[in-house]
Write a structure and sequence with these properties.
homodimer; metal ion binding (chains A, B); zinc (chains A, B); GroES-like_sf (chains A, B); metal-binding (chains A, B)
């Protein structure tokens, strides 16, 4: 089959690899119907050292079950299934606490002999725990929205949930990428009445307004902080959802959070240390939370509103490439000419 | 009157200053009956640059109201009152949210013309909001325990509360100083059944066991982390209460926290940046919280168990000095020959 590999910064290729097969009785093999390129794929796209073996790519996909191991009971051949960006047993204590990314028996795509979603098919370990069947066919117009449950929607929701967003919280979302926009949608669903979106790409922030943002702040740095404080009566926001991962976004978050408030990070941090001392987090009793979203934990909760059309998170996809053209998708997202790219094998 | 001033690292003197008087209609003047030296007083004791003016010291005291301004209604001359380590109006939105340390009209002792508690008397701004009357006389044997409500008990309680401690959480307390021991007591009161105290001063950790610690880990660094993990089935603790403020304590906290758990800091950080990236907090979805405790918020909640003898937090005081000998108290705490020193003017 064809699968996407990255061989170094900027070097994405689609190559032939062996077809995945069921190896364990708990495995399933899923033929990929829709995949996509993630903002976090751009981090290695910028910085990965050249490697002759390459790494398989993609951690967001949905598709049709083609084969299952003898122990698999919750999905069957022919089901259309959504795969979250981590695989997990959904039964251990961490999973029961909703922290599937720390599953005792789980793992991530593209590691330890498991492939990636930007491919024609994927072997899915612990299929019963990992996959969620969706009651639609592979020609459903809902597929792009359902695909967001793989990662970006669940990740935005995780940011909002961990920040304790509710009717009484003011919210600032930092970043107008797909995760930032899904954080806006999630904050709105959790009842927030003021949602300030910090971003400077009008096409994206316009979509953010349609998804629930009440204010847009295009300024950055001290000017951006001053603007958010002005919009929040001088105090800053109770909940700051940081959906970027770079240090300036962290600093922005510290600058706009209200005393006693929460900074909830879901952008993968591209730094290892950051200000947390008296002058940043400690003095004003600010809480720092977040991490890789247990997307699996949220699929059943978020899917009904997708199925009945209440929300349309698939609007974050603004272009589509064939699998063999996936490198064009990376280029478009890197150049910000595309917000998020669908990949159709 | 006599009052304690620090003139630089290691240089503590008791000097004559003008008697405090009511300046605002919302002020009270309190004659100090009991004060104490705080672990956080040792930070400037180690590092304060020499200054000819000196700084007044002390932020924990209780005493008898000697005079009140015309607007004061909740305390009266003759009342025995507890002063939390920050003064506040107790009516603004931050105070109503329980964040008195961010009060819109409040402040801290030893700043902006307000003196400190290691003195014969103190002018208390916003007396109605700041002071809490205790139904005891100035000869009550409960005074040391009531004095802990000024800071260390409320601070330990804040650590436990912010960490979400309850019956289902395993707890690790880092630091066997007075705040660490109060964090142990608080975690026990909030229902925790396993409380691991990290500390290496047997007299202190023995007291910690009496206050509720179920395990003591004297080891530090990698060895200490391994020991806590062993005691928690390999996973680490749900709630880590960090009551020190130095970087090794922070690193210890990161090492012993369970995925999805909380590090709650109440030791004043002596660092400005710290590890928060994928390998420390982000990857395992660890939450970092805490800050200066709104001690005022907890006085009414914690006082009944002190008054009825259910708890005896005053046991953290193991020596007493006269006000004129306060420098001896600093020396004893610095040398760790005393856990916490009472000061009797």
């Amino acid at each position: 089959m064809r699968a996407t590999y990255m061989y170094g910064a900027g070097d994405v290729r689609v190559i032939d690899v062996p077809d995945p097969i069921v190896q364990q009785p708990t495995d399933a093999v899923v033929r990929v119907v829709l995949a996509c390129v993630c903002g976090s794929d751009l981090h290695p796209y910028h910085s990965m050292p050249a490697t002759p073996e390459g790494h398989s790519m993609g951690h967001e996909f949905l598709g049709v079950v083609e084969d299952v191991g003898s122990d698999v009971t919750t999905v069957a051949v022919g089901d259309l299934v959504i795969a979250p960006f981590a695989w997990s047993d959904n039964t251990c204590d961490f999973c029961r606490e909703g922290l599937h990314t720390s599953c005792r028996h789980g793992g991530f795509w593209n590691a330890n002999g498991v492939g990636g979603g930007q491919a024609e098919a994927v072997r899915v370990p612990l299929a019963d725990g990992t996959l969620v069947a969706a009651p639609v066919g592979e020609d459903s117009p809902l597929l792009p929205s359902l695909l967001t449950l793989s990662d970006v929607y669940g990740t935005g929701f995780h940011a909002a949930l961990r920040a304790g967003v509710n009717q009484r919280t003011t919210v600032t979302v930092i970043g107008d990428g797909a995760v930032g926009l899904m954080a806006v949608l999630s904050a709105r669903q959790l009842g927030a009445e003021q949602i300030i979106l910090m971003g400077r790409h009008p096409a994206r922030t316009d979509l953010g307004v349609e998804l629930g943002a009440t204010d847009v702040v295009a300024e950055r740095g001290a000017e951006g902080i001053a603007r958010v404080r002005e919009l929040t009566g001088g105090d800053g926001a109770h909940a700051v959802l940081e959906a970027v991962g770079h240090m300036p976004a962290y600093e922005q978050a510290v600058g706009v959070v209200r005393p006693g408030g929460v900074i909830s990070r879901v952008g993968v941090p591209q730094y290892s240390s950051a200000p947390v001392g008296f002058g940043s987090l400690f003095g004003p009793n600010v809480t720092l939370t977040g991490g890789p979203a247990p997307a699996r934990a949220y699929i059943e909760r978020l899917m009904p509103a997708v199925l009945d059309g209440t929300v349309d998170p698939g609007r974050v996809f603004d272009s589509t490439v064939a699998l063999d053209d996936v490198a064009d998708g990376y280029r478009a997202m890197d150049a910000r000419t595309s917000l998020k790219v669908l990949v159709r094998p």
